[in-house]
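input
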Amino acid sequence: MAGKFQWYKFSEIDLEDSFFDSLKEDYKDFPQWFDKKRTDGEAALVFFDELGIGSFVYLKEENEPIELTTETLPARPRLKIGTLRLAERFRGQRLGEGALGVSLWRWQEKKLDEIYVTVFKKHQAIIDLFERFGFKNVGMNERGENVLLKKRNMLDYSDAYASFPFIQPDFKKAGMIPIFDRYHDKLFPYSELKGNRNEIEEETAGNGITKVFVASPNSPVKYEVGEPVGIYRIFDGEGKKYKSVLTSYCTITKIDIIKHNGICRTNPTNFIKMAGNKTIYSPEELLKIYESHRNVVILEMVYNGYFGKGHNITYKALSENGLFTSYPYNIIYSKEEFIQILEMGDVDVQNVIINPSRVRR
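output
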């Protein structure tokens, strides 16, 4: 997929691009609205490729009532996704997931009560995406649009996507996933050296927030679905212990056991088919992993957050705090230890694990 997301001023965007035709059809006053945003100097997150605009995301903070046909929702601090639209050629790809992920990160960062979007019923694919991420249909507005809303104090923790970007507070344990730098930087290209928020968001939107990694631990994995994990970037060079760092934190959403103690659960052809279009590995690398390891596991994760430049946690810091006592695949953290790790990475824990007192003794 050529092209990339970037933040652009409305004044830099061509309203005559055919991408906007459907928006003009849905909203007769869209050109006037767009011109006002130009005048106000506002910006949107836009994906461009050789064919033009592929996606467009506009976010707006509000604190006003939402008028429905059946009731009025009282004014609250909210983030409105004023526009999130994908070109037809990108439907069903990770572009929409990434753009929505960035919107939810912004909502979390702003510490607003709610986030919402208005969508006409005919855009079912977009509605399905929002509902997967925990938005609920709360009614219809006077335009005939569905109003989809997500509340900070009513998150569905039964599913890591529905509660994203927050981590469910009742997790039993946590872990660590080690990834060599050359693979880490493909899977998490924004989690190591970058410190600019816009740059990180642009790459996140283009890559999506679902991450799939093929693990090959020496012993059977101890991870569980719903468990948070730290992502450990192994520096494969001189000074490994000093340059290897914990960069990110995710939640395990799916585990596929391919080989267990040398016993194959599926053949190599099926394994490559399962993992080939989802991972950073080539088919040749996947086959080598399959043939050379007793334990092979496909781990799917949702990418909750990153520490960022200057905040990544070094091996030395982890070791000195008793948080690196075994090989990473074998490490099991308590709730308290995982919270300690987030704090070491300068994360506002109460804004990642809502009501963290529930997980402290």
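quick obs: Residues 357-361 have pLDDT under 50 and may be disordered.
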